[in-house]
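re: ur question from yesterday

yeah so i grabbed the chain u mentioned. its 78 aa long if i counted rite. heres the sequnce exactly as i have it in my notes:
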Amino acid sequence: MFHAKDKTCLRGISMAPSHEKFFYETSCGPYNDPENRVCLLVQRVEQLISTENTNWQRYMEEPQKKAPTPPAAGGPTA
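ran it thru and got these structure tokens back, copy pasting raw so excuse formatting
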């Protein structure tokens, strides 16, 4: 189940390529050199994908945190 933190992170991830596309289409920022625009776009988007794949792999390898088990009925209390 996704939590609010996960949804915020997912939104950020999905928006990053859109930002790159906007900069590319308007020749802003790093995309102002017409000779290197396409190559730079590919490099930057591939880096975004690579970083996200690494983060996802780390997330999936983390042990899942379990909720504490409630004490048995009639058992000692803390």
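noticed a couple things. The chain is about 60% helix and 0% strand. also The two ends are 30 Å apart (CA to CA).
anyway ttyl
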